[in-house]
Amino acid sequence: MIWLDRVSKSFGGHPVLTDVTFHVERGLTTVVMGPSGAGKSVLARLVVGLHRPDSGRVLIDGTDIGLLPDADLRAVRRRIGMCFQDGALFNSMSVGENVAFPLRRHTRLSEKQIWTAVAAKLEQVGLPGTENRLPEELSGGMRKRVGIARAIALDPDILILDEPTSGLDPLMADAIDELIFAMKPHRTLLIISHDVTNVLAVADRLGVLSGHEMVAFGPAAEVIRSPIQIVRRFFERATRTAALGTLGS
Ligand SMILES: Nc1ncnc2c1ncn2[C@@H]1O[C@H](COP(=O)(O)OP(=O)(O)OP(=O)(O)O)[C@@H](O)[C@H]1O
Ligand SMILES: [Mg+2]
After folding, report:
1. Rounded to whole angstroms, how far apart are CA atoms 35 and 37?
2. How far is CA 111 from the centre of its chain?
3. Ligand 1 centroid vs 45 CA: distance in angstroms?
4. Does the global pTM surpass 0.85?
5. What does each of the 249 residues of the chain score in pLDDT, given as a tens digit?
6. Does residue 68 belong to any structural domain of this protein?
7. CATH number of the domain enclosing 63
8. Ligand 1 first shell, C-beta below 6 A
9. Could you tell me if residue 186 is inside a domain?
């Protein structure tokens, strides 16, 4: 469904991604992990066309999005929901208007239909009735969930979540994990995370980015056993957790 074909990207002469090849299969949950600064968020932004690769191709359902005129790129983007690492909510807009934003932009729904859809999405992320709150009045975990509600507003085929649980307390992280679990059977998910335990619970496919490269990629149960040092170091802590025992059994 998503295919990165030998993608390289640098900023100001500093390479961030070099020759990265990886794919996301329809209906599966693919997780990308890696140290801070490895280029995970850049990779997510490449997939939605917010960055263009210096070389290589980003294909969505076989179409090279680099070759698309803006109008067609917009149509592709409409099919992909993205929840940014920092939430990227509009602080001056209410929670409801934040979630309504993609609906106003991409659909011709009536006001009534928009607010019905907004209420349904907020309900889905466990925040019913919060339409009139402002983002600054919410906790970090609630803001993340509003970001997810906005990302699923258009019922996208593909949902990208950049660090959905980072910076949250374990209870809130669990609540977000449950939400991801509930969405998993119905969507193609690309999750960026360095939360090892969460990753192990949801990943079908796992990619590890390190030193500008995708150093490991494949079925999650195989990748976590990879002898590559950076992968081993990432999972050493996790080998002591029950989550790994469950996945490995
Ligand atoms: N728009 C940009 N302009 C210049 N440099 C950028 C830009 N976006 C990202 N970078 C650089 O690219 C590198 C990778 O950034 P990225 O945000 O993808 O890391 P990350 O793997 O998501 O890290 P984290 O786990 O901390 O979120 C960093 O060195 C960052 O400074
Ligand atoms: Mg990031």
Report:
1. 6
2. 29
3. 10
4. yes
5. 899 999 999 999 999 999 999 999 999 999 999 888 999 999 999 999 889 999 999 999 889 988 888 888 888 888 899 999 877 899 999 999 999 999 999 899 999 999 999 999 999 888 999 999 999 999 888 898 899 999 999 999 899 999 988 877 888 788 888 888 888 888 999 999 877 777 778 899 999 999 899 999 999 989 988 888 888 887 776 666 545 555 544
6. yes
7. 3.40.50.300
8. 11, 16, 34, 36-42, 85, 194
9. no
Ligand 1, atom nearest to 42 Cα? 18
Q: What total of structural domains would you count in the chain? A: 1
Residue 219 resides in a domain: yes
> In this structure, which residues have their CB less than 5 angstroms from ion ligand 2?
40-41, 85
Residue 49 lies in a domain: yes
- For 207, the domain range is 1-79+194-249
Distance from residue 43's CA to the centre of ligand 1 (Å): 9
